Amino acid sequence: xxxxxKIYKKDLVKIFTNWVALVVVIGLIILPSLxxxxxxxxxxxxxxxxxxxxxxxxxxxxxxxxxxxxINVGDELVNELKKNDNLGWNFVTSEEAKYGVExxxxxxxxxxxxxxxxxxxxxxSKDIKRPDLVYTVNEAAxxxxxxITDKGVETLKQNVxxxxxxxxxxxxxxIFNEIGFGYINExxxxxxxxxxxxxxxxxSDKIGDLINKAYNGTITVNQMIDKVNAIVPSLEKTLNxxxxxxxxxxxxxxxxxQAINKISPMVKEDLGLAKxxxxxxxxxxxxxxxNVDKDTIIKNLSLIKDRLNSxxxxxxxxxxxxxxxxxxxxxxxxxxxxxxxxxxINNTMNVINSIENTLNGNGVINxxxxxxxxxxxxxxxxxxxxxxxxxxxxxxxxINESMDSLITLANNGEETIQKTKEALPKVKETLGLLKKxxxxxxxxxxxxxxNYPEMQKSLSKIVGKIKEVDKGxxxxxxxxxxxxxxESESNFLGNPVxxxxxxxxxxxxxxxxxxxFYTTLSLWVGGLILVSILTVSVKGIDKEKENIKPHEVFxxxxxxxxSIGILQGFVVTMGDIFIxxxxxxxxxxxxxxGMFISLVFITIIYSIVSVFGNIGKAICIIFLVLQVAxxxxxxxxxxxxxxxxxINPFLPFKYAIDxxxxxxxxxxxxxxxxxxxxxxxLIIPCIVIGAILKKPLNKASEKFIKKLAESEIVEH
Length: 716
What we know:
By secondary structure, the protein is mainly alpha-helical. Helices cover 74% and strands 3% of the residues. The protein has 25 helices and six strands. The strands form two sheets. The protein has a four-stranded mixed beta sheet, with helices on both faces. A two-stranded antiparallel ribbon has the order 2-3. Helix 18 packs antiparallel against helix 19. The model is unreliable at 167-173, 178-186 and 481-501 (pLDDT under 50).
């Protein structure tokens, strides 16, 4: 023990009594920090500055027409992109885009073809054609930029998918509304006219009696006219409005039939959309089973919830739609299946919420929790598949039956209106004589008297027919189908959920998020620099004369190396916090952990180099390369190839980075303590191996080192 401290003391004296040595040591302490600080600062917020990534947008869409509505999805996308500054969108011609991408002025280009809108509305026809976006990327310009532009084009595609659903279904819903609300707006005027006709019919006997009295001379013509007007005010206006009643009702019923015919295919399309959302949850759930990273699990659970919410919204709206058109309970079974599917989705959401609560409470989920979730998701999937599989054979005929009932109602109404329109002229001709007043001749009065009984029968028939058309339950059953909020119904299909973002263990910027990796990397690099510049052997002391044993040399120099290494850890972590001002939740713990990690790394590196010499340095460099690639400091381990996944649990970097992440952002304390325990456990075997093997391995390698020195190409 005495010789160990003698060696350590000698190194300290040499450092502090030789100003060059002191400057070199200070440089060794600071140099690793510069490596970390420059890398952290340069990557402080790269994804917040992506507006510098230029992407050319070429809009050649000529638009399309659907149900007399002009559509240009390309223009809508361009307008949305102009509001979006996530990337540097440049709106150019196709020639400018091609020239710019080839020469690196733009990292990528996206072309919206001329038939884009036309292809989108093909969804409403039998000949469906998928719309294309032409994405061209210059992958030679930069390694990362194409990945960012890939994300940009994927976002654009999602906007297109949303627009397709909103455009097609939105137009259908809007047409329904225009039909329904158009009739509703006119209905008060129509009802006023109808009431007058009803009043005229109810008082037709009184009017007939007045006409007879005027003909017999009991009363004058003027007295007759006054009394008729008192019974039925605005008779002429009433008769003219009758035409409006019939024409408006006929138009409404005709348009209703056209709208109703659109419902069946729309139901199946929306069920297919719900199935896509549900199938997506199964794919995501597969990645949870083998994933031990808490943050990733929570993120995947959130994605599953988003898709389930989207599916649930679609199912709810379809259930409401079918309720509106359900005639005589024919669709009760289908509505029941949709409601059952909603219950399955809600039960699955409850399981996800329970798992999230467990994770947020620093608990650990087990295989049973994951299996329960997967079982629930499969139940949801089987539910939607059951509905879709029986759609054409069972559900569609019942929907069509309900549609046929509504169309039959509309047809009967149209037939009634047509017959009424045929009879109305005779009523108008007869009663029109009354408007002449005192100018009414005896001949015309006789004609009025003779024709009135037949006209009275026609009027009674007309009113009866109008009452059939105007029967509240019948008309309202069609109106309830047509007058839903078209904007909300189409918007929910295009944007089924609003994502409520919940960032667990939030880190405000990318640089702070990367500080655990770059700090850890700099400490290993610092250790490599130390063994490259400082010697691991004792000089200036006669080891034989002082009876200094190899293990004493090992521990004596070890104290020198770890002293400098701990200072390296102190400087780099303090600089992260106070110079770069990286976000660190537990600053004191972060500094202490940096010093401890440096101690562990110096122990590993020093032990290997002390035992194996220059070969040990090469081993440590190889070890560095493997750790940078497989530690999970930049890309998640889960996306790496099998070899790197396999070696990940054996790398010190993994536990050092995870420990620092805990102190930077928070996390699960049990996992942090596990990381510390594994790092501490690495010290003991390194010291034991170094102390025991130093002598035999140094002796075995003497000839190798001597021969290498003879080449005069190495320093030591």
